[in-house]
């Protein structure tokens, strides 16, 4: 998965097999009879670590989507007895906190 980070890109349209599958999942999510206005979805997927991606639906910006996704991963980790600390770093690798 580390190799994916080195070539991370953002697109508005599916780019490969996995993102096309994710696009169809989002279409099914939106078409579901229980879907309500304001519902949001974040999908993360991988093909044996060789390919992968994320799809966000219903968010005004990707920062909020990623924040929600990380909060969910942190909560899921806690249910397994794991501690997951998330720390933001600037491009130079320095941790900075406001306040």
What structural class is derived from the secondary structure elements? Answer: alpha+beta
Low-confidence stretches: none
Please give the number of β-strands.
Answer: 2
Number of alpha- plus pi-helical segments:
3
Q: What is the helix/strand order?
A: HHEEH
Q: Calculate the terminal CA-CA distance, rounded to whole Å.
A: 34 Å
Q: Which shape, going by the Cα principal axes?
A: globular
Mean pLDDT: 82
Q: How large is the radius of gyration?
A: 16 Å
Helical coverage, percent range: 25-40%
Strand order of the largest sheet: 1-2
**What fraction of residues sit in β-strands?**
5-15%
Major sheet characteristics: 2 strands, antiparallel
Report on the structure:
With 99 residues, the chain is an alpha+beta fold. It has a domain at 2-60. It is built from three helices and two strands. It has a two-stranded antiparallel ribbon with strand order 1-2. The longest helix has 18 residues, at 62-79. The N and C termini lie far apart (34 Å). 2% of the residues are buried. The model has no long low-confidence stretch (mean pLDDT 82).
Helix and strand arrangement:
Blueprint: H1 2-5, H2 17-31, E1 41-47, E2 51-57, H3 62-79
Antiparallel strand pairs: 1-2
Short description:
The chain has a domain at 2-60. It is built from three helices and two strands.
Using brief descriptors, characterize the structure shown.
single chain, 99 residues, alpha+beta, two-stranded antiparallel sheet, 3 helices, globular
